[in-house]
Predict the structure.
Amino acid sequence: MKTNPEMMLVIESLLDSYRQEVESSPTKPLTKKIYIKNTENFVRWIAGSFHPGAKTRILRKRVKNK
């Protein structure tokens, strides 16, 4: 984890507020989805449960080993 548990609670609360703001905006649905997903990934990265490119590396290994 890149921060303490108390700060994660604040970050997750802010993420919920951000989601609501994005959903209520006049932005196109796909754009909303991208904004929210990228922000969720950033919060997951802070929490230590997301590693950029990890899924891609796993898929490359599987293809290589076939």
